[in-house]
Amino acid sequence: MVQDITLDKTACRGQTWPLSIAPMMDRTDRHYRYFMRQITRYTLLYTEMITTAALLHGDRDKLLGFSETEKPLALQLGGDDPAHLATCARLAEDWGYDEVNLNVGCPSDRVQHGHFGACLMAQPALVARCSRPCARPPHCQSP
User: Fold this and answer.
1) Which CATH fold would you assign to the domain 19-141?
2) Which of 42, 67, 90, 121 would suit a FRET pair with 73, their CA atoms being 20 to 30 Å apart?
3) Which residue has better confidence, 135 or 39?
4) Active site residue: 12, 88, 106, 130, which one?
């Protein structure tokens, strides 16, 4: 039996989704997201984590490009500089992402070497400063 899901569009952070698929490094690329979208339309999909430095200095078409088929889609950012995060959140908005997510949970050594991910949990004031500039849609969420 297929059940139609009515989504609540009045939540304070914007659109809500009954299910999301977490960002996974080396996994949630555009091919994976396209495949997942064939399975469900009612799931919020995430990009792999993209560092603010990569977005500011790298190939934005390659890093931010996606198919409309993948939506709803959240961009996960890794970084610890509020100004850089604000710039990247504006880029996400310009590219049409539905949400922006700040990575405050990844425990990998590679991520912690860059001073973001799980190591930010020890610095709640910095996380607050990093989240503030991206508080307007698309929303910057910290788990």
Assistant:
1) TIM Barrel (3.20.20)
2) 121
3) 39
4) 106
- d(Cα 70, Cα 103) in Å, to the nearest integer? 21
Residue 84 has pLDDT above 90, yes or no: yes
Which pLDDT score is estimated for 9? 36
Compute CA distances 142 → 57, 99, 131, whole Å: 24, 11, 8
Give residue 54's identity as a one-letter amino acid code. A
Is 117 within 8 Å of 78 (Cβ atoms)? yes
Dihedral angle of Cα 130, 16, 37, 6, to the nearest 10 degrees: -170
Q: Is 119 annotated as catalytic?
A: no
Express each pLDDT in 45-56 by its tens digit. Answer: 999 999 999 999
| 38 three-class SS | helix
Residues 3-42 have pLDDT tens digits of 333 444 333 356 677 788 888 878 889 999 999 999 988 8
All structural domains of the chain with their residue ranges: 19-141
Which distant-in-sequence residues (6+ apart) come within 8 Å of 49 by Cβ? 23, 25, 76, 77, 78, 103, 106, 111, 117
Instruction: Give the helix ranges, DSSP H, for 11-106.
Output: 30-39, 52-57, 60-64, 82-95
